[in-house]
Write a structure and sequence with these properties.
The chain is of the alpha/beta class. It contains 13 helices and 17 strands. α4 packs parallel to α10. The structure holds pyridoxal-5'-phosphate. This is Acetylornithine aminotransferase.
């Protein structure tokens, strides 16, 4: 009998049951690699669903957490705080132009939730226009804007006056916006919906339409933020600023945090209109401050752009009959297959590469931005190998 501690049966006994779980326990991570409870090593292109842009346990984040944890762990936003102030100033320096105010929270869905509330407060209107295949989180407001029916339907009634229009289609959104629209909420690159970059033409049309109709433009950059696409934020590829930008995932180097950045049209945020016990806590702020410093000093934003291009080219060159399309921006990579993605995800894992789905037929890679060319080469060659394996249908 092995004396290795096996977390799987215990988790299976007590866990909620709401996740599709893979049959593996990850117990350690360093840089681009994670290890399971049997000591097997993986290149991690899941990265905590796009959280570990700096890789795992980045030394700068670890030491910031250590230091802050000995000074002050919790400090509600009813008080000012030195670490929070430093973070807000640093974050303001990398945000798209025109976004000068920030609300801090604890997750991506929370940031979307706040964005919807702020848009309603600022405009006095109710209607939100979101997109087909869009994903914005699982809390009731964010879920209302999420497209996938099987996520939403069991929880009806959701918040009213949310409509979904096709993504990246100018005509549909033009006819959908009315004088009752509070905000248009879109991802700049749809993530869960299949890694689909919005075109510049579409995004700038949205900007123009929202200006004309007096409603707010919300970009959900929870997944695309913090260098994932090769800019601090994906909208900076196009020089288009929203009125509200939502953030999460990689904002704090692996520590839970979310944030909402806002421009001058977001008015009426008076004391008491929103809030969160843990929002702006010094531990997350210290981690985020360290993470932003690391993105900058290690040139990771530019690296993501270059390596993303490199990886997509290599994957296209596999030229396999099962690959329908290779999409993405920076190190946000989607490989649309002509067949189901799940057997390939499983096979990749067996060969030491962790990857994600994005809908039923898309393999999604969200590697840490610190990944080396050699590791990317290895990931691509494993993808080629599993596509060719007969048991997967190759
Ligand atoms: C674009 C987008 N928005 C919001 C969310 C929700 O974030 P969280 O899971 O932190 O609540 C996600 C999560 O995948 C996301 O990709």
């Amino acid at each position: 009998m092995s004396d290795i501690f096996d977390p799987i049966p215990i988790e299976n006994k007590y866990t909620s049951g709401v996740y599709y779980k893979r049959d593996v326990a990850i117990v350690r991570g360093k840089g681009t690699k994670v290890w399971d409870s049997h000591g097997k090593e993986y290149i991690d292109c899941v990265a905590g669903q796009g959280v570990a842009n700096l890789g795992h346990c980045h030394p700068r984040v670890v030491s910031a957490i250590n230091e802050q944890s000995q000074k002050l762990l919790t400090c509600t936003e009813i008080f000012f705080n030195d670490t929070r102030a430093r973070l807000l100033e640093k974050l303001a320096g990398v945000l798209p132009s025109g976004l000068n105010k920030v609300y801090l929270c604890n997750s991506g869905a929370e940031s979307v939730e706040a964005a919807i509330k702020f848009a309603r407060l600022a405009t006095g209107k109710k209607e939100i226009i979101a997109t087909m295949r869009g994903f914005h989180g699982r809390t009731m407001g964010a879920l209302s804007a999420t497209w996938e029916k099987r996520y939403r339907q069991p929880f009806f009634p959701l918040i009213p006056e949310v409509q979904h229009v096709p993504y990246d289609k100018i005509e549909k959104i033009t006819t959908a916006i009315s004088e009752n629209t509070a905000a248009v909420l879109v991802e700049v690159v749809q993530g869960e919906g299949g890694v689909r970059p919005g075109s510049r033409e579409y995004l700038s049309h949205l900007r123009q339409l929202c200006d004309e109709k007096g409603c707010l433009l919300i970009f959900d950059e929870v997944q695309t933020g913090f260098g994932r696409t090769g800019q601090w934020f994906a909208c900076q590829h196009h020089g288009i600023s929203p009125d509200i930008l939502t953030m999460g995932k990689a904002i704090a180097g692996g520590v839970p945090m979310g944030a909402v950045a806002m421009g001058e049209r977001v008015v009426n945020l008076k004391p008491g209109t929103h809030g969160s016990t843990f929002g702006g806590n010094p531990l997350a702020c210290a981690a985020s401050l360290a993470a932003l410093g690391a993105y900058e000093d290690e040139n990771l934003i530019r690296r993501s752009l270059e390596l993303g291009e490199y990886a997509r080219e290599k994957i296209k060159n596999i030229n396999h009959r099962f690959i329908r399309e290779v999409r993405g921006l920076g190190l946000m990579i989607g490989i649309e297959l002509k067949t189901k993605a799940t057997p390939y995800l499983r096979a990749l894992m067996q060969h030491g590469v962790l990857a994600l789905p994005a809908g039923p037929t898309v393999l999604r890679l969200l590697p840490p931005l610190i990944i080396s060319k050699e590791e990317l080469d290895q990931v691509v060659s494993v993808i080629e190998k599993v596509l060719n394996e007969e048991k997967n249908g190759g």
